[in-house]
Amino acid sequence: MTEQIVEPRPSARPRPTVQLCLASTLYGTVTLTALADSGQLGRPDRRVLVLSNNSAHPETSPRLVDQPDFDHLARHFDEVVDYNAWITPLHPSAWRPREEELLMWERAARQAWGIGEAEVQIVCESIQAPPATTVCRMFPDATIDVYADGLMSYGPTRDRLGATVGTRIDRVLHLDLVPGLRPLLLSEWGARTEVVDTAAFRAVVAGLGEHLALPVPADEPVALVLGQYMSDLELITLEEETDLHLRLLALAAEAGFGTVVFKPHPSAGSAMITPLQRRAEELGVRLVVFDEPIIAEVLYERLSVGLVLSAFSTALMTAANLYGVPVASLGTDTLLTVLRPYQNSNRIPLTIIDQLVPQSVADLRRADRPGAEDLAPLLTAVAHAMQPGHTEHLRPAAVQFLRENYPAYKRYFYKRRLLAAELPGPQRTPVQRVLLEAGQADHPRIREAVSRARKVYRRIRRARR
């Protein structure tokens, strides 16, 4: 009997890979470019930059593609897609297609963006909100990396993610804004954290701003005041915000700088410019207003910046830890008190700046500022108090920190918030103390019984009023 020889089947060709990189700001595009240049995003067959304009009125606001430096960044990608134009007249921050529509939109995107049948990888920011969540839902088989270029990455995920998205997240890629401190963003999903290569980031920034007319000679020592738009976000009033910037200007003068460059936030109005000019004359310093739409890091590269001042801008930490420039801050104590609601994501940047950044000339000369090892337990407690519903994995460390340190750090917490989350710290009535201690037991039946007892206790208190 003759043996039949079976020829092996030729192995199937692997499907090509398309990487979708989502960005809505110049800063985010710079971070993505640095990740691509450093090799941290791998080597897909095609890399597509998907741009969205998430401003309230995108039709009247400047587009990223129109900025002078954009071409320098765009050449690192194989294609650039205008997300706003693709979904017009819908708004990127509001459009959430229904579940039954997702397959149709995936097919439309594959055709319009030239993806075809390729495997998709997604690299996005702000995973908890559209357009990132929309695109991630649109491609249900795509792997997901999240990049974070701000201090908010050291805090909790703002909203609870569905398992169809959360289980696909592999990494959180972040700038090393606080060396040694690990981001808590998406930690509930076990996402790995990875630092964006600092040298690659600085190399990308160094290539920006060649078109700029510098506000002062490159070798002239200056202090740089970075404006923020806190009144527009209704964190404080315009008068309070103006007063804060006047105090920052005075601090720069006290530190010995004769020239101060003021870079207003792109979203802020011009109402505080005149008061700042008047105050500069009184202080005997030269004030130069520089409102070009560039990121602050370009000025760190191209000017002789000796001091950076702001309220709680992320650019303070890039100056200090990526460029080695001294920094100072004012107003965090007031902002911590007035920030509402407690879970506002700005609470994490405020807490970090309040702890780490000098707030006076005397503080600038101190060498004993807290480090990441001192900050991590505090941020864990703040993060759990902000979002107790999906940060149960942080609860044991938060409880321990509050039991041991609450009196020294109580300005970072709202009493009612701790009471509602059943966390230690504020003084309680004897009944509240018993309920708190019992409620922290590990057994679910004990916690359920405590929850019922707490409801009865509240009804009794209301009945007595």
Explained architecture:
With 465 residues, the chain is of the alpha/beta class. It folds into 4 domains: 17-206, Rossmann fold, CATH 3.40.50; 221-369, Nitrogenase molybdenum iron protein domain (Rossmann fold, 3-Layer(aba) Sandwich); 371-411, no CATH class; 428-465. Helix content is 40%, strand content 14%. It contains 19 helices and 12 strands. The strands form 2 sheets. The chain has a 7-stranded parallel β-sheet with strand order 3-2-1-4-5-6-7, sandwiched between helices. Strands 10-9-8-11-12 form a 5-stranded parallel β-sheet, sandwiched between helices. β4, α5 (132-138) and β5 (143-148) form a beta-alpha-beta unit. α1 (26-38) crosses α7 (198-206) and α13 packs antiparallel against α15. The longest helix has 21 residues, at 444-464.
- Main sheet makeup: 7 strands, parallel
Count of the domains: 4
Percent of residues in beta strands?
A: 5-15%
Shape: globular
Helix content: 40-55%
Question: Helical region count?
Answer: 19
- For the record, the CATH architecture of the largest domain stands as 3-Layer(aba) Sandwich
Q: Give the rounded overall mean pLDDT.
A: 90
What's the level 1 CATH class of the largest domain? Alpha Beta
Q: How many angstroms does the end-to-end distance come to?
A: 99 Å
Biggest sheet, spatial arrangement of strands:
3-2-1-4-5-6-7
As for the CATH topology of the largest domain, it is Rossmann fold
Contiguous low-pLDDT stretches (5 residues minimum) are none
Structural class, judged by helices and strands? alpha/beta
